Amino acid sequence: MSDGLSGEEPQEHPIYSDVPIGLPKRRKSLISFRRDWPLMLLLGILLAGWILYAVILPPLDIRRKIATSRWKFNPRDPEISFAIWFVRRTVEYWFVFWFFYLGASIGSFINVVASRTPQKKTIVSRGSHCPFCDKPLNMIDNSPVFGWVLLRGRCRACRLPISPRYLIMEIIVGLIFVAIGAIELIGNGINLPYRDWRFGAGIVSTVFFPKWDLIGAMIVHLSFFAIAVMLIGTQMQRLKFPKLPLFVILGIYFASCIANTTLLRVRWTEPWGGRFLSNTSQYSERVITSGLGALAGVVLAFLTSQVLSRYYFQASDPAEQDHQDRPKNDGWIWHWTILHLLAGALFGWQAIVLVSLVGSLLAMLACGFLSRRKSDCDPVFPQRVIAMAIWTGTLFVHVCAWRWIVMAWN
């Protein structure tokens, strides 16, 4: 058989006689519908959600609006225009997806920081790679959530399993971004105490009339929860995060609370003093509010960490025990303390007292339940990690319901 160029017959492979040498090998496709059906299913669900929200539901809502209205609509009225409803809902849907993907991307980066920084490894000069075969990940495999689903939790090169911790942290940070973005950005700060949120809420006002003070406050809140998830991931690997970067972040938070009036919505004299009026507040009041919150956080962190470490935590790994058979929890105490310190500086002493007491109580109940069901195998999530996760979740609920909590004590 001629190759059409030299007129010579292609040589045969020395081992496999049916594989001729000189013919190009068939490249394996990067994405296959048969092989990558989980990713195709995920993309199909995403597309189906957009069709349902932006194409199917608007006509039903328009018909219901016309049927329940007391007056007759003009056919050209924008309120019953399907095109306008379609554009608005499409923007809303993909805006929410963009927020989730942004949060998941930051969650993917947090995974790298949580594992490399305590080990003094670089996070800049080298990209993501397989921890087993050390092969770098390509752009598609390195995409948050979708890359893990595409690979089915295994490395493309060595086929060894990739920990689901990466996927879980990406999803959690993505959902946090969606919730905080919807409440504080699209909802015009509906969760912030003493803020008039009724005028300027919605996707249209958010996109075309951005409020930069609110955007700055949202970024600070999102960064805090990203740091909390990062510390939880570091604790899962039994590592200790360096102190210097976190103290730098603490200084940035102090400066943000002083400069941005949208932060620190509750005055340090409440609930016994007056309301915090952002347009008449002084810098000294913000400094005192943030400083007292940080001090209260340190005190509560010390007390609750001592109670949890002494009475509720158990060392399931013999390597974590010292000569007195007591668990080495210095790294956990540092992570627990810095979380209280940052939260107190951002939200005030009222928030940190409530969150620390409720979160620590829930953590004690969870750890006590796990202690009664102790098995010979190490738990998937150690008790210290569960305590930090419960405390962070309690603070997240408090931030989402901040306005109504303040209204309850006034």
Fold and architecture overview:
The structure is a single chain. The chain is 59% helix and 0% strand. By secondary structure, it is an all-alpha fold. The chain has a domain at 250-409. Helix 2 crosses helix 4 (164-186), helix 6 (212-236) runs antiparallel to helix 10 (383-400) and helix 7 (243-259) packs antiparallel against helix 8 (283-311). It starts with 36 loop residues before the first helix and ends with a helix.
Structural class: mainly alpha
Distance between the termini: 91 Å
Number of helices: 11
Estimate what percentage of residues fall within beta strands: under 5%
The helix/strand order is HHHHHHHHHHH
- According to DSSP, the number of beta strands is 0
Shape: globular
Biggest sheet features: none
Mean pLDDT value: 80
SSE layout and pairing:
Blueprint: H1 37-68, H2 82-116, H3 146-151, H4 164-186, H5 203-208, H6 212-236, H7 243-259, H8 283-311, H9 330-372, H10 383-400, H11 402-409
Helix pairs in contact: 1-2, 2-4, 2-6, 4-6, 6-9, 6-10, 7-8, 7-9, 8-9, 9-10
